[in-house]
Design goal:
The chain is mainly α. It is about 70% helix and about 0% strand. It is globular, with a radius of gyration of 11 Å.
């Protein structure tokens, strides 16, 4: 539950940032920001390396939003 809450906070931050930009660079920047935020807010039982690794495992495409990236990262964390 703590992992979910931490990544949910990261998702909200990333979505707020993604709403300000446009294009694929904004999505990539939002994903990077989400990974950074996830590292900063993860619970003690999830390491920063695990959070960053989960975001890196997501295959990011041009049509994906930051929310899609974070959902993919949450799926990867669920199986750790």
């Amino acid at each position: 539950m703590k992992k979910f809450m931490a990544l949910s906070l990261a998702a909200m931050t990333a979505l707020a940032l993604a709403g300000c930009g446009s294009g694929t660079s904004a999505t990539t920047a939002a994903a990077t920001e989400a990974a950074t935020e996830a590292k900063d807010t993860t619970a003690a039982d999830t390491t920063a390396a695990e959070a960053a690794g989960a975001v890196k495992k997501v295959k990011i495409t041009e049509e994906m939003t930051a929310e899609d990236v974070l959902k993919g990262a949450l799926r990867h964390l669920a199986f750790l």
